[in-house]
Design brief:
The structure is a homodimer. With about 400 residues, chain A is of the alpha/beta class. The first copy, chain A, contains twelve helices and 17 strands.
Chain lengths: ~400, ~400
């Protein structure tokens, strides 16, 4: 027998969104006339902003001329982009992050999935529950999670931090000490946030307990409330305990363009070993840099014109999220999120998450995401996203309201 | 202390090409007038072909319109590209590879580096020596290689397959049984090849010994001789024992564009477990698909016009490689490669590889790659590449010839 990594075989079913896609496809095949509205996967629908399109065309043009052609990019990203990010996303906000602490890559999903490689195989993870499935799944593949229990939907060696209506979606410090703590803020899927004081509790805890916070800030652009930090480095002490993931996908509609970055501070150390240097080594060995074209498009996101255009797009999606939030609330649903996030998180009442998924698909032709797919405490919840068009979003809300009548 | 993956700390020095870049930079800073010719890293210099540029512009235009915008790509690649690859690279050559056995990604380096995750941590690797450093380094990070011995330049738990002038660069079957066998054909850095009969020996061996061949065919476009296979699937039995890596970097100058694919046949199984399904699961969990724009550019490579244009580029680089090969041979160097490969591999005589590197940099202002960076049997060898301009290549050859006078 070929000696495979048996941990892969422990993963139950397939990746959440693949399962949903298959279910929707099957429904559509048997109901070809159904006008299905997709508020499930967190994919954007607006086209790229004009400033981004112009930058892409210009970069393509450069690639067609010998004098301006670009071959291999620097593994860690072009200086022009790393400097722009360090300045505008960090230094302008008072965070002392340098350009060489920014690692440009092709997606926060890749980076969130790969980051666990830097840790020992015995390191123990803690995750908010519910949360983006990649954190747990990538650790299952690495053999850190123990065994899966079908009955509870839990892995024996994972510390779950329940985030439910009961605790107002604020994770409590665990009794057992974790080595890696995944925090997603604003959280996917609940759309809820930790404010500065609540995040400070975790930063202090991590520093005191030699744990590292893997901080996913992919939804940073949706933050509305002043007391929610845009970066974990706004919190004192974070540079010695936190790695931050950021994405161009949600702020600028780059889901199909692929560009992101990760911040690993030079101050993050394990004895003499620098996690910054380890991540650089990983990039140098298993990655060949983000494409030049994409990095130029990323620059356009920081230009005055680009910024204005993309913030209009974010405002458009925020309006959708508010429409869902308010519409569902009016219809009597218990809802969360929708303010600092494109996501609305609703309680499904008597139905399980997947029952509600089928109900919504079949009776309203609306696709959402079952909360249980994000962790055991997501059961009886459901996620809807503000990434559709305004018209389809409003129509979906109307259909869901009609179901209650 | 933070619980890090200590295996990372075992890696000696930094990645080969980073070290070279630093050395060249230091030389240039102290010799600002030196006209340095770089025939070191395997990066291309010709701009993208016109058909590719057109495809990129068209795809960018689509991304700017709501009706034709593309968000998240399918994790495994768009069907249009997977089908084109399956047909033109495989079925047209008589290889029965289906579109759903093609996994599109952002680079052969990423895939070659990540593929080891599918195997058990106790799996033993065999590598040609010398070879592309990513195979060994990615397994060092995963803890499969044992300890490094400075004196021999060898890892205690790696099976080395020496490929030198003495055995005409044909690796012999090992005494000890490996679980993973990395073969690069045409080989990087030696530029030498295995023909069909020689490759068949390895396919049969892998099938008989439950080993998997990780077959890197990134330089396939440079194959000139008829008896060198373009794909391992031309060899009977390969579908039950081989994974193939291909790249658009060297055939179409995509080093800065980033596009590649990996073939994992459905017939490749470990008991009931399918390595095809495992790789699909990895893509679904840790990758978010290659960008739409890039995949459209990949399609242009297969168009009639695109094919004609890129083959002219390959011919241009091949002419460079022949020029180096012949020029060095005429100057009395023992040389290999240069026929089925953009790489020429020369013996450095009395000098070590790094001594020759410094000699060439300082006395001829030519940058090449020290053979010892590719493995212990690469000591006393040196790699030059045909990816420069013809003019600079001819000039570099002249300078090297003059050193001998």
């Amino acid at each position: 027998m070929i000696k495979i990594n048996e941990n892969y075989l422990k993963l139950p079913g397939s990746y959440l969104f693949s399962t949903i896609a298959k279910k929707v496809k099957a429904y559509q095949e048997t109901h070809p006339d159904a006008d299905i509205i997709r508020l499930g996967i967190g994919d954007v629908t607006l086209p790229l902003a004009p400033a981004v399109i112009r930058a892409l065309h210009e970069a393509v043009e450069e690639m067609g001329n010998a004098a301006t052609f670009h071959g291999y990019a620097p593994d860690l990203g072009y200086s022009f982009l790393r400097e722009e990010i360090a300045k505008k996303d960090y230094q302008d906000r008072g965070c002392q992050i340098d350009a060489d602490e920014i690692f440009v890559s092709d997606g926060a999903k890749s980076d969130c999935g790969n980051i666990q490689e830097l840790f020992d195989e015995t390191a123990k993870i803690a995750v908010c529950d519910p949360v983006y499935p990649v954190y747990v799944d990538s650790n299952v593949m690495a053999g850190r999670t123990g065994e899966y229990d079908e009955a509870t939907g839990k892995w024996s060696n994972v510390i779950y931090l329940p985030c439910t209506m009961e605790n107002n979606f604020v994770p409590q410090l665990p009794k057992e000490k974790p080595d890696m703590i995944y925090l997603c803020n604003p959280n996917n899927p609940t759309g809820t946030t930790l404010n500065r004081d609540q995040l400070k509790v975790w930063v202090d805890y991590a520093n005191e307990n030699d744990a590292v916070i893997l901080y996913d800030a992919a939804y940073e652009a949706y933050i509305t409330d002043d007391d929610v930090p845009h970066s974990i480095y706004e919190i004192e002490g974070a540079k010695t305990c936190a790695i931050e993931f950021r994405s161009f996908s949600k702020i600028a509609g780059f889901t199909g363009v692929r560009l992101s970055f990760t911040v690993v501070p030079k101050a993050l150390k394990s004895g003499d070993a620098s996690l910054h240097d380890m991540w650089a080594r990983r990039h140098g060995t298993k990655y060949n840099g983000a494409p030049y074209i994409q990095q130029k498009a990323g620059m356009a996101v920081y230009s005055e014109e680009g910024r204005k255009e993309i913030l209009e797009q974010v405002a458009y999606y925020k309006r959708n999220a508010r429409t869902i939030y308010q519409g569902l609330k009016d219809a009597g649903y218990a809802v969360a999120g929708g303010v600092n996030s494109p996501y609305v998180w609703l309680h499904t009442g008597e139905m399980t998450s997947w029952e509600f998924f089928d109900h919504l698909l079949e009776d309203a032709n609306v696709v959402g995401t079952p909360g249980s797919g994000f962790g055991p405490s997501g059961e009886n919840y459901f996620r809807l996203t503000g990434f559709g068009t305004y018209e389809s979003t409003a129509e979906a809300v109307k259909r869901i309201q009609n179901l209650k009548r």
